[in-house]
Write a structure and sequence with these properties.
The chain is mainly alpha-helical and 199 residues long. The protein contains eight helices and six strands.
Length: 199
């Protein structure tokens, strides 16, 4: 090996793993040529992750009365009040206008219908995440009823799926919208029939 190094016109720089890890954050195994510069890796996150909207975590402060939300229709406000929901929690006050404002401007109507942008919410249990997506879904489907599967909500457990189904039923009661549940407790064909049956 020493003879090969002497015969080679190129100089090889041998660095210790400690030197490499200081410079790049990674341990480079083996030698590097002296004239080669190591490029640093830049972390790039999408804006919605790099610059999230932080909302108030205190559920009792800044409660907005449901009738003050200009994005909710009279039907949804009436249903909320029937179920003794008179104020929106902070997560609902932030998410509902974000979704419904896109619908009002028609900025997300594609060939398949209403396609809002993605929203990722991180909030503890009991902070109002379910209503934050149930209300916009029900409101957007109320005006555009067709006999097809219109919205699909995927949840991690059967218990949670049952709870969310009950919330959807609270707000679709008295409308032409139907809510189905496919939880694996029936055969796949029965679940499929319930979800796609136009009746």
């Amino acid at each position: 090996i020493s003879q090969e190094l002497q015969d080679s016109p190129e100089e090889t720089l041998v660095e210790t793993p400690e030197d490499n890890s200081k410079e790049t954050g990674f341990t480079v195994i083996g030698g590097q040529k002296k004239d080669k510069k190591v490029k640093k890796v830049k972390r790039v996150l999408p804006d919605w992750l790099a610059k999230p909207t932080i909302i108030n975590s205190d559920l009792s402060s800044n409660l907005i009365p449901v009738e003050k939300n200009s994005y909710l229709t009279a039907h949804i406000i009436k249903k909320l009040q029937q179920h003794d929901i008179n104020h929106l929690f902070p997560v609902q006050s932030a998410v509902i206008p974000a979704i419904l404002s896109q619908m009002q401007t028609n900025s997300y109507f594609g060939t398949g219908g209403y396609e809002p942008s993605d929203i990722c919410i991180s909030a503890p249990t009991g902070s109002g995440k379910t209503l934050a997506y149930v209300l916009p879904i029900v409101q957007s489907l109320l005006r555009r009823v067709v006999c097809h599967l219109r919205a699909l909500v995927i949840l991690p457990t059967k218990d949670l799926a049952n709870q969310v189904k009950q919330v959807f039923e609270m707000f679709t009661e008295g409308t032409n919208l139907r809510v189905g549940l496919a939880s694996g407790s029936k055969s796949f064909s029965k679940d499929q029939e319930q979800l796609v049956d136009p009746r």
